[in-house]
Amino acid sequence: MRHGMERPRPSSLDEALERAARLADEGRWDEAVRLLAEQEQAHPHDATLLAMLGVAARELGAEGLAYDLFRRAWAEHPEDPTVLLAIGAGLAALDDPDAEAALRAAALLAPEDAQPHLVYGSYLRREGQLESALDQLERAHALEPESSLVLTELGCALWAAGRMSEAAEAWAAAAALDPAEPRPLVLYGLLRWEQGEYEEAAASFLAAAARAPEDGELQLLAALAAAAQGWGEPAEQAWERAERLAPVTVDAAWLLETEDLLADATAARQWLDETAVPAVRHRYLEPAFW
Fold it and tell me: Which domain range does residue 2 map to?
């Protein structure tokens, strides 16, 4: 769309977009990009097409191309909240300030849809606008009270606002709602660790690691947290899993630094405080949408 006037879309383009969406759902991003790129030559001003192609390009690691496509889609003045959401998330991932306007528009145009409020609220939290972020995330929670992802992002905003007990409650509820997702357990553990509740934090890290056995960094975090509590067998088991996964999902240098720490609770805790916890905190507090 441009300036509020909707462009008629050929049925052939609609069919191509539907096929591309199915390919994306199946993880066949190369094929989706080829299909969309063919359509882009004939429809260079279709915001939906440009946004979808931008998403696919990002999935393939073509950040520069994706940014250009999101900018072009935004320049078409779309009014579809789904398209605006894709553009806003894409621009947010690339630190473009127009992300705020796109995400705000998506939330305004779809007030009864939790997803735009969730993504916009997460963006505002990242930008430090905590009061507005909490407003958006609480709206998302009201619309989808059983969403683990909504509760996880709400917990992040509550933590940033200094409302620690409420953040812990949100993450505990999120972890219960999605038994396969490790992120709320990691965040709960990080909060407890920073509060000095090391035993509870270590238990949460071990539970998170059990949910993500292929995440080497998380296995190492759990191993060192267990070692800091003197839990020898769980520490060794988690460390061995991390060792098997290096260097794919864990830094091999971290393994070299930490192998001798499993038998030294004080040194393990110090390494976590100085190295692992800050890195993991940054990773897990990053919104899940970009």
Answer: 1-92
Cβ atoms of 85 and 70 within 8 Å: the answer is no
Same domain (yes/no): 175, 208: no
In a domain, 171, yes or no: yes
Residue 99 domain flag: no
Residue 8 scores a pLDDT above 80: no
Task: Give the tens place of pLDDT for each residue, 220-245.
Answer: 999 999 999 999 999 999 999 999 99
With CA atoms as reference, report the closest residue to 90 among 110, 71, 114, 77.
71
Tens digit of pLDDT for each residue in 204-216? 999 999 999 999 9
d(CA 283, CA 286): 6
Domain count, the chain: 3
Q: CA distances (Å), 157 to each of 8, 95, 102, 261, 288, in order?
A: 41, 19, 21, 34, 13
Q: Assign residue 283 the CATH number of its domain.
A: 1.25.40
The contacts of residue 232 (CB under 8 Å, 6+ apart) are 262, 263
Name the phi and psi angles at 146, rounded to 5: -100, 15
Q: pLDDT, tens digit, for every residue of 191-207?
A: 999 999 999 999 999 99
Alpha-helical (H) ranges within the chain are 11-25, 29-42, 47-59, 63-75, 81-93, 98-109, 114-126, 130-143, 148-160, 164-177, 183-194, 198-211, 216-228, 232-245, 252-258, 265-271, 277-285
Mean pLDDT (whole number) for 94-114: 97
Percent of the chain with pLDDT strictly greater than 90: 89
* Distance, CA of 32 to CA of 54 (rounded, Å): 11
User: CA-to-CA distance for 240 and 88, rounded, in angstroms?
Assistant: 41
